[in-house]
Design brief:
321 residues, alpha/beta, Rossmann fold, Helicase, Ruva Protein, domain 3, Zinc Finger, Delta Prime, domain 3, five-stranded parallel sheet, 15 helices, 59% helix
């Protein structure tokens, strides 16, 4: 039997991977030969053919865990894996052999190994959660930590706006909040106190100043961020993130959809983010927003290739708008 787990939501994907592994080992607590091949960590990997050809003294079942062979493994390693399965077709039909492929991300779909697994394996893709699904996951996760745990609606919106769909970050923040509130409802004040926002408030204010045409204010805020010790490339990435979010909201706003709840539902963004961004969108055109995003991408490329000073380039970007 071959199982294939993959997707952008590596948190839930890894959870499923661990559940399957533990379930198999519990059912076969004795007499199981376990092999792990992690192409993202080990400097050298044992050939897969050796694992399948080896006979354990006491085991009659094999569990083979293959991690990140497509996202981290070399083309030669992927060819070796594929050749092993194609040479011995009995592996995938052997009831005593379970092979679980795990990919922390989305492998290239045009790869030969991916195509083989997609066709022959039992597969499950884990896409990043958005909107209501993400909110439900957050609420359920909190209750696994404490049955009494709950969020006010505004606090949950604020939390998800701060963390995005990264479940590693979100789970850590929820754990911290549940421990702090000790069974009480988690409020906006708890979020403000404990959660480091994905978008620093002064960075949001910078974009707000830019969209309002207040270049002097935007320049002041930018240099305050640098003076606080923020890495300029982090600042650049956050500006890009905010402009990209504005463009996503604008795609609906410029077509006549002006209701924040409707845009949130249609875009998959959280109502808190949409509501805070609508005032900025009203000052922007689609063409200008797209140009801002292109300009930031050019600054990022030029700065990382040593062609421009990123601080000077961002100064020029702000002044030229």
């Amino acid at each position: 039997m071959i199982l294939f787990l993959y997707g952008t939501d590596s948190f839930r994907c890894l959870e499923k991977f661990s559940d399957l592994k533990n379930s198999f080992l519990q059912k076969n607590s004795s007499g199981t030969d376990l092999s792990v091949l992690d192409y993202g960590e080990a400097s050298s990997i044992q050939p897969l053919t050796n694992i399948f050809s080896a006979q354990g003294l006491f085991s009659n079942k094999k569990l083979v865990l293959i991690k990140n062979s497509m996202t981290k493994g070399s083309p030669e390693q992927q060819k070796e894996i594929l050749a092993t399965f194609k040479t011995d077709a009995t592996i995938e039909k052997d009831p005593d052999t379970v092979v679980i492929f795990f990919e922390a991300g989305s492998p290239k779909k045009n790869g030969a190994l991916y195509k083989f697994l997609f066709k022959t394996a039992k597969k499950q893709e884990f896409v990043s959660l958005e909107g209501t699904q993400l909110a439900t996951w957050a609420t359920d996760f909190a209750k696994t930590l404490s049955p009494e745990a709950s969020f006010s609606r505004s606090a949950l919106n604020m939390l998800l706006a701060a963390t995005g769909s990264d479940l590693y970050i979100l789970s850590n923040e929820i754990t911290k909040l549940v421990n702090y509130t000790d069974g009480k409802e988690i409020s906006e004040q708890d979020i403000i106190l404990l959660v480091k926002s994905k978008i620093d408030s002064t960075m949001f204010e910078t974009i707000e100043a830019l969209t309002a045409g207040n270049k002097a204010r935007a320049l002041t805020l930018f240099h305050e961020q640098i003076a606080k010790g923020e890495d300029v490339f982090y600042v650049l990435s956050m500006y890009t993130y905010q402009i990209r979010t504005l463009l996503k909201i604008g795609d609906f706003y410029w077509q006549g959809m002006t209701s924040a709840p409707q845009i949130a539902q249609a875009s998959g963004l959280h109502p808190y983010v949409v509501q805070k961004s609508l005032s900025q969108i009203r000052n922007l055109s689609e063409a200008k927003t797209k140009q801002m995003l292109r300009d930031l991408a050019e600054i990022d490329f030029a700065a990382k290739t040593g062609k421009v000073d990123p601080i000077l380039a961002l100064d020029i970007f702000i002044v030229s708008l």
